[in-house]
Amino acid sequence: MTPYEKAYSETMHIEGLYSDDPNDFGGETYKGIARKKNPDWHGWAFIDEAKTKPGFPESLKNNALIEELVKDFYKAHFWNLVWGDRVSDLSCDVAAEMFDTAVNQGPYWAVVYLQQSLNLLNRNATLYPDLVVDGVIGQKSISALQTYLRRDPAQMLLLWMNIMQGARYAEIMKKSPTQEGYARGWAKRIKLIKS
After folding, report:
1. CA 91 to CA 170: how far, in whole Å?
2. Which of 36, 58, 103, 144 lies most in the core, judged by the most C-beta atoms within 10 Å?
3. Measuring CA to CA, which residue among 35, 32, 65 is closest to residue 48?
4. What's the predicted TM-score (pTM) here?
């Protein structure tokens, strides 16, 4: 199993099958793919057809074609945008965390949390210079991650990334109380470690 396949499998255990919740900012979703944000995704044609037949949405569970479309979508729109292959060369756990965060909050935030966390853990810029926190992964972020991992465990970096992820969920719910209905599901994405 490749690092992407492993990360994808872990994320799919959290994502639901199908939802059309009026409180969801993304509207209609299939396995986490929001129709409002991704109206041109080819899978919608299959889903719309399946909606006209009995057994929807369970009838889609074992559809290999739709599963391949979902998997390809996630790789192109999330894994590749956080440089999942390159990050997984350094740490599969960090790559999986960035991927899952990208899926739920967007690639920008996944990279921001990495950059901010690396800045917090660089021992006042003695390990590497502070990164510009711009939400765009590049060679400087990769180099900082590589330097960090030579000295410290990935678990501390992951802890800070998850703290930031959780803080953003709290801010979203504070701004829009309708989103509190997702608090339990979002909490499943936050992985904290014991010291």
Report:
1. 28
2. 103
3. 35
4. 0.88
Angle between helices 139-151 and 107-120 (to 10 degrees): 50
* Nearest alpha-carbon partner for 63 in 81, 90, 45: 45
Residues 123 and 121: their CA atoms lie apart, in Å, by 6
What is the identity of the amino acid at 30? Y
User: Left (φ > 0), alpha (ψ -120 to 50) or beta: where does 129 sit?
Assistant: beta
pLDDT digits (tens, 9 = 90+) for 71-114: 999 999 999 999 999 999 999 999 999 999 999 899 999 999 99
**Secondary structure letter of residue 179 according to DSSP:** G
Q: Assess contact for 181 and 23: CB atoms under 8 A.
A: yes
